[in-house]
Amino acid sequence: MSATRPELAQVHRTVDTGRLRVHVVEAGDGPPVLLLHGWPQHSYAWRHVVPHLAAAHRVIAVDSRGAGRTDAPATGYGTNDLVQDVIALLDALDLPQADVVGHDRGGSLAFRIALEHPERVRRLVALNTLHPYTEVRRLAPYAWRYLWTPFVETRYVGRLVLRHLPWFLRTLLRLGVADRAAMPADAVAAYVDSARRAPNARAGEELMHQFAYHEILPMLRHPERRRLATPALLLVGSSDRLTPPGMLGDATTYADDLRVEVVDGAGHHLPEERPELVADRILAHLR
């Protein structure tokens, strides 16, 4: 089990990257570790993991564009823009390189950063997401699991759902965990209340819209073939309803060092369901 130092203060601050003002939560000293959250969450998703990592690392949990307390401009939610947001943040923090950990959408973003800017990522950990080399034939049987996405990815509909139908996100978040106790009411409220703010609701819609309408088809037509040189660990829950382990295939043809570990009995929100296990696996991988 990883050591913790609860006395370490978690400092909230805003970093002006020149692209946007980014809210981060920092704790600890040592080699930098960047934590990227998934949708519809924000940096609060890492609250149980940060104390474990901060005993030996400088931990930086980020609110991405349009989430939490970070700026939510009307545009800039494609993956290329989000990658540049992270690079700009590293530059603003004067970090030539960092270990990068991402959950859900943050995990897929971490893979993309490592592929496009390998010099900036020392080691990579992704949670509850697909690796870049997942084959279309593995996705097809699970397509029905995403029938809910048109309600948030459709222009003008998504923002209305996120703002005025809070039960939608509450249900989605609770279905994402294998154990309901891992997603208590106060955590659900923290995510739902943030997503309901008008700029954030528009941002959430745009994030989902860009991926669904402008990125999925090109990805399917032109599978990723760039080689992943960064040592990477991918953790998935055996009971993950959104990205089940069955979607994954062998990536050894294209990755120098990518390990996949299935966490038995866990769902889609590993940082909240199994924070100590997640922290232990991260620390072991970063050594």
Keywords for this entry:
hydrolase activity, globular, 8 strands, 11 helices, hydrolase, AB_hydrolase_fold, 287 residues, Rossmann fold
Task: Break the fold down into its secondary structure elements and pairings.
Layout: E1 11-16, E2 21-27, E3 32-36, H1 50-53, E4 58-62, H2 79-92, E5 98-103, H3 105-116, E6 121-127, H4 136-139, H5 150-153, H6 157-164, H7 166-175, H8 185-196, H9 198-221, E7 232-237, E8 258-263, H10 270-273, H11 275-286
Parallel strand pairs: 3-4, 3-5, 5-6, 6-7, 7-8
Antiparallel strand pairs: 1-2, 2-4
Helix pairs in contact: 2-3, 6-9, 7-8
GO molecular function: hydrolase activity
Domain AB hydrolase-1: 31-275
Protein name: Epoxide hydrolase EphF
The main sheet orders its strands as 1-2-4-3-5-6-7-8
In DSSP terms, counting alpha (H) and pi (I) runs of 4 or more, how many helices? 11
Helix/strand/pairing class, anyone?
alpha/beta
Low-confidence stretches: none
Per CATH, what is the topology of the domain at 11-144 and 224-286? Rossmann fold
Helix content: 25-40%
Shape: globular
User: CATH homologous superfamily of the domain at 11-144 and 224-286 - what is it?
Assistant: Alpha/Beta hydrolase fold, catalytic domain
Encode the helix/strand succession as letters.
Answer: EEEHEHEHEHHHHHHEEHH
Q: Describe the main β-sheet briefly.
A: 8 strands, mixed
Taking all Cα atoms into account, the compactness measure Rg is 17 Å
Estimate the mean pLDDT confidence: 95
Task: Quote the beta fraction.
Answer: 15-25%
Domain AB hydrolase-1: 31-275
Organism: Flexivirga endophytica
Protein name: Epoxide hydrolase EphF
InterPro entries: AB_hydrolase_1, AB_hydrolase_fold, Epox_hydrolase-like
